[in-house]
Design a protein that fits this description.
This protein is of the alpha/beta class and 542 residues long. The protein has 17 helices and 24 strands. The strands form four sheets. The chain has a seven-stranded parallel β-sheet with strand order 8-15-16-17-18-19-20. The chain is globular, with a radius of gyration of 23 Å.
Length: 542
């Protein structure tokens, strides 16, 4: 029997347990049927076999992003982006918002994303009054790049019922001026309700999902772990889009909403749903809640105060008892459980929760996770090892937020997303981008794990650097393991799904500081080419 597709003359990075590097791969239908030397695999070439001459380029397993938000990224493309290179000042931001207001019907939301006060000349947030000056008839919301802080105008405050008499919510803060009037800046739980209040229509959600899927595929992402949606309706639309083929990336859907995630988890438990329901295209993932804030805000819950603010230690969403109850029940009902936990205090709480859940209801191979696992000090690493927890670090953050990390956390950056420590302890960590917080490009995540440099060239915990093969595995086999799918995908091995990516060079041979500049030439899902650069035309019949 001849193969349908054969790729030869390459640097085939298998991401198997031995980190083997081979030369050629053969695919029949949607499965890998041969991996090895050119001479061996070429025997499977027939008259109808499509052949790709890799010409020395790397072939890697399809990238798995174990933590991103597909709908948030996609729908952001419908709003105003503060990440454009032309945005250098607050004036530039306000000018773009005004353009959007002028094309938006009165009463409709104007949404702005990707704002970072440290990257503009004024180094501050816009005020409610500045947004009001643009429009008092449109509700306007501007979200910080981390997604944990927002600025809104008076109309948006009115819609949410926030005024000078509104108390701060648990785990959140309404920033006020000297006389107690809200400035428009909302932190953590104070801004979370806007994910539903300013949500998108069914058509907009679908449009955003399709655009995001196309972008992800072009970067070599073939599977995602979606880390939370804006609403239960958003979850349903995502599932439909995958089933209908409008979203092609395989999706492991974490059960979580940005606002009131504990309520959504409770509804799913009562519906009798648990982790693993679905198929190779769409599957229910872990139950997730938020325990603290962001690493770059910075609002992460720390055991010791911030280096640049001795009176501040971050924000917690739940008490230990509440966390144990919510996720303990999910564990009891068969869910894999996880939580957003950036600071070491929040990570410690989640480890306490997992330990308590396992004592009450022991379960082997639970694969409970911690999303981000930002500041993971050595004692927490050891507890992760003992409890067999899977951390989901975000190494692409170093390039974008590294300078701020050094300022906020000082020497603790040596234990930030500590992938070297995880590997040395035998802990399986899976890489995620947290897009749209940072770029979804997996090569940036690999670059960050290997180099750990900020945008200004500073070391951000250089003691935690790992090798290129190890970094690729973070975004391939390890991601499959984190979703109980390592026997299905994540490595280039016989019998696994033919989810493959051709890079534009040999990643093991380029200088490590140039990994971020590499690109994807082909993306293959289930043996089918779903992305091909227009400039490349090397598919041929034998």
């Amino acid at each position: 029997m001849f193969a349908d597709l054969v790729l030869v003359n390459g640097q085939v990075i298998t991401s198997n347990m031995e980190y083997d590097v081979n030369e050629a791969v053969a695919v029949t239908d949607n499965l890998i049927v041969a991996v090895g030397k050119n001479e061996e695999v070429k025997r499977l070439i027939g008259s109808q076999t499509e052949v790709v001459d890799l010409a020395g380029r790397s072939l890697v397993p399809g990238f798995i992003d174990s933590h991103l938000h597909i709908t948030l990224f996609g729908t952001n493309k419908l709003g105003v982006s503060c990440k454009e290179p032309t945005i250098e000042s607050l004036h530039d931001v306000l000018k773009e918002i005004e353009k959007k207001v002028n094309e938006t019907p009165i009463g409709n939301w104007v949404r702005v994303w990707g704002f970072n006060e440290t990257k503009i000349s004024e180094n501050r947030y816009p005020s409610r009054k500045e947004l009001d000056h643009i429009s008092s008839n449109h509700p306007i919301i501007l979200r910080r790049a981390c997604g944990h802080i927002s600025v809104v105008n008076s109309k948006a405050l009115e819609i949410a019922g926030i005024d000078e008499h509104t108390p701060d919510p648990e785990g959140g803060k309404v920033v006020r001026d000297e006389v107690g009037v809200p400035t428009g800046v909302l932190i953590e739980n104070a801004q979370m309700p806007y994910y539903e209040l300013a949500d998108y229509t069914h058509e907009e959600l679908l449009q955003g999902l399709m655009m995001a899927s196309n972008d992800f595929i072009a970067s070599g992402i073939t599977s995602i772990h979606d880390a939370g949606v804006s609403s239960p309706e958003n979850f349903r639309v995502m599932q439909e889009a995958v089933r209908n083929g409008q979203v092609q990336v395989r999706t492991y859907a974490i059960v979580s909403t940005i606002n009131k995630s504990e309520e959504f988890v409770d509804k799913m438990i009562k519906a009798g749903i648990s982790t693993g329901l679905g198929d190779e295209k769409f599957k229910i993932g872990p139950a997730k809640v938020f325990t603290d804030g962001s690493s770059s805000g910075p609002t992460a819950a720390m055991r010791e105060p911030y280096t640049d603010n001795s009176e501040y230690s971050g924000i917690l969403y739940f008490s230990q008892e509440e966390l144990n109850r919510i996720l303990g029940e999910a564990h009891e009902k068969g869910f894999q459980i996880t939580a957003h936990a950036q600071g070491d205090r929040a990570i410690e709480m989640m480890l306490n929760c997992i330990e308590e859940a396992l004592k009450k209801h022991p379960r082997k191979n639970h694969r409970h996770r911690i999303e981000h696992a930002g500041i993971t000090m050595p004692d927490l690493v050891e507890r992760m090892r003992q409890l067999e927890v899977i951390p989901i670090p975000n190494p692409a953050f170093f390039l974008k937020y590294g300078d701020g990390y050094i300022k906020s956390y000082g020497e603790r950056v040596n234990h930030m997303y500590p992938v070297r420590d995880f590997i040395d302890k035998g802990i399986i960590a899976a890489g995620g981008s947290d897009s749209p917080v940072t770029s979804f490009n997996p090569l940036l995540g690999i670059h960050g794990a290997v180099n750990r440099k900020s945008s200004t060239g500073q070391d951000v915990g250089g003691n935690q650097r790992i090798g290129v093969l190890e970094a690729i595995k973070l975004f391939t086999w390890n991601g499959a393991y984190a979703s109980f799918e390592e026997n299905l995908k994540g490595s280039i091995e016989i019998g696994k799904l033919a989810d493959l990516v051709v890079l534009n060079g040999a990643i093991l041979d380029v200088p490590t500081d140039q990994i971020k500049d590499m690109q994807v030439d082909y993306t293959i899902i289930g043996g089918k080419v779903v992305f091909q650069k227009e400039s490349n035309d090397i598919l041929s019949k034998s």
